[in-house]
Amino acid sequence: MGEFKDFLEQWCMAMGLPRPSPGEESEVDLAAITLRKLNEFLYQQPAAGQAGYISQFQRYWERCHREVISPSIDRNQCQQVSLRLAYLFAHPSDHPMYELTPPIDRRGLPDEAVANVRFFTVIQDFKIDLHRQGRNPFAQYRETPEWFDAEAVAGNPALADSFLNYLEARSQVDKRRSWMIEAAQFLADNYAGNAYCLFDIHGGDAEAIRRALCEPGDIGYSEKKANLFLRDMADWGIWSYRRNYDQVDVASDANTMRIALRTGILRTRMPLLASYLDVYCHQYGLIDEWTRRAWRTVWEEWQRQDESSAPPTPASMDYVLYGSFGRRLCKPSPSRRKCDICLFDAICPPDSRILNPPKSISIYGATGWESGKTNAGGGGGIMS
Length: 384
Hints:
The two termini are 31 Å apart. Helices cover 48% and strands 1% of the residues. The radius of gyration is 25 Å and the shape is globular. The longest helix has 25 residues, at 282-306. The protein has a two-stranded antiparallel ribbon with strand order 1-2. It has 384 residues and is mainly alpha-helical. The protein has a domain at 111-235.
């Protein structure tokens, strides 16, 4: 036995404090004293006057997480990443393992139909595979166009149910159904029932369209989903934005966060905390924000070097980053990474190759767990 004393010595050394001198306390005594104070700070509810926080640490973390994590963008690394992406986009046939844009089979479909299909499918684009076993919502439009007819769906909610059955949506069905119906009513009330009209009504302004989608709050559109919709409308040639196209960001998720950290375009003072120390998602929100900034900087460097080859929006890098780099090559486990065949291999800093993105286990929302709170009596916490 000696692991705990080693831990205390390393802790003191890291903080520049004198090495603990031998005393009468046994290692078990030291462990009991130290762990009690850690538990009080990290997990026990604070004294009166600080109500609303799980612990004193969470109060501190809300106030100081930005300074502790200290995210920054390495513009030199952004330039290196942009050069490799520019090469990939210029020579896609040389690298068939990389998929640059989301799949679409729009044979015979006008632009208006494509916009309406994607408007409704992007709402459901989480925790299900839209293209599972060859499923193709765009081809399905020819069979059941009423699923993507806003006025029809708003007037007949059963259409939303049949659409969700087609997608085999099993999670959060009530929420998905409500979003579908509310989104249909949103189009019917404001855009003549046609998602394609969003472009003209908002003057081709990408930011204005995103804001219009997100502000209602009950139609299933978050900023991330709005960016996906705007990305696809640009990448598929449906819309060519007149303003604020540079604000259509990569949709930050575990994959795009992980690649940003491992390539070094996004730097932090230290490896990120485990999620159960970030129960209000302050760290997660910060890294989400800075990941989008970092990938936008990559796109800006690409524009600066060769505007003619750069894609129409920063989000146009999203699909290849998420699918080809993130899910196939830069896997979470170091033992499963495929660095040797990755285009970023030569530029990933050695000290960042094992970095991991944050996870969200907020006490609020779908993963909420109010029972995590405890008091000075100890115990408590999360249970299965």
